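Weekly puzzle thread! Below is a chain. First person to post its structure in token form gets bragging rights.
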Amino acid sequence: MFLAVIGLLTLSAACQTAYAQDNEAAQTEQVVAADDEVVDPFAAAPNDKPIHQQLKKLFIDGGATFMSLVLLCLILGLAIAISKIITLSIAQNNNTKLLGQIEDCLKNQGVEKAFELCRDTPGPVARIFTQGLLRVKDGQGIEKAEKSVVEYGSVEMGKLEKGLSWIGLFIGIAPQLGFMGTVLGLIQAFDAIEVAGDISPALVAGGMKVALITTVGGLVVAIILQLFYNYIISKIDTIVVDMEDSSISLVDMLVKYSK
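Winning reply:
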């Protein structure tokens, strides 16, 4: 939820320019009667509103329906991403230390002790080692153990990638919702022109504002989730490479100490 608030702050920063432009029309009409001095039409009015009030106004101006959906995509996507990062951090154990302990067990105490060590150690690498050592302990041979390590490595890799499709879904949906809000905003603008029978900036300003805010909101959400997605992918790649390297080292140990 904290990161969701950060995402909303980013949305506010991206949309403040559009919000300031809404006040420029009022600035251009202000004239000082005393010396006929015209106020600079491009000068932005001072904004003393707190940030949460600005966010609330942008949320309402963008249309509560579509902005709520965009915000929901951000919250759900961040929730999945954060839980995934925590899971991957737990799974990233010190495999070098584990391999050293396994080698010590194989050298001095046998396969049974190495199997118990891996069984009691959390993490995907330890679970893969457990399956390989189980085959050796049951007398199925090194080839069966190696095959088991490869097969369970694929299973553990699938578990690491579980949930990424949902993050990708929210990355795709958020900008689409923003673009849909854009189309609806343009429809509102053309409806206003049709009813009035005249083209006036005041008539189309409301619809165009909705279009801009929803589009920016969807794009900001997609960018935030894409950053998390890429970070998770890189973390998974690191763990998978470590798993493969550790598995090769385990098979070499089994061959060495089974002679």
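Puzzle host: Confirmed. Bonus trivia for everyone else. Residues 1-259 form one domain.
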